[in-house]
TrEMBL record:
It is a multi-pass membrane protein. This is Vacuolar ATPase assembly factor VMA21. Required for the assembly of the V0 complex of the vacuolar ATPase (V-ATPase) in the endoplasmic reticulum. It is found in: Endoplasmic reticulum membrane; Endoplasmic reticulum-Golgi intermediate compartment membrane; Cytoplasmic vesicle, COPII-coated vesicle membrane. It holds the Pfam family VMA21. One of its GO terms (cellular component) is ER to Golgi transport vesicle membrane. It comes from Xiphophorus maculatus (Southern platyfish).
Length: 103
C-alpha cells in the first residue's frame, strides 16, 4: 500500500507543465469579449443620440420630451440585441464546425 501512495505522490510532485494549446482559445474568447464590450457601450449610446436628433426630432418633428422617451426605447432594444448576439456567439464558440455528414 505504501508503493501506491508513493507512486501517486511522485506524479504530482512537480508543477504541471504549461501547455500552450489553450492559448488560442483564450485569445479568441478575450477578443470576442472585448468586441461585445465595445459594442455594448457604443451602439446604444450612438443610437440614442442619432435617433433622437435625426429621426424623432428631425424627421418626425416630435417634441424634445417625446423624443427622449422613444430614443431610450431604441437604446434599450439595442442593448438586448447585443446581449442576445453575445450569448449566441459565446454558446457556439467552442463547438467544432463540421461540414460533412457524421455516421
Amino acid at each position: 500500500m505504501d508503493s501506491t501512495v508513493r507512486a501517486s505522490s511522485d506524479s504530482s510532485a512537480g508543477p504541471p507543465p504549461y501547455f500552450r494549446g489553450n492559448e488560442g482559445s483564450l485569445v479568441s474568447a478575450l477578443k470576442t469579449l472585448l468586441f461585445f464590450t465595445i459594442l455594448m457601450v457604443t451602439l446604444p449610446i450612438g443610437l440614442y443620440f442619432a435617433t433622437k436628433a435625426y429621426i424623432f426630432e428631425g424627421s418626425m418633428k416630435m417634441t424634445s420630451s417625446d423624443s427622449y422617451f422613444y430614443a431610450a426605447i431604441v437604446a434599450v432594444l439595442a442593448v438586448h440585441v447585443v446581449l442576445a448576439l453575445f450569448v449566441y456567439v459565446a454558446w457556439n464558440e467552442g463547438t467544432p464546425k463540421s461540414k460533412g455528414k457524421h455516421d
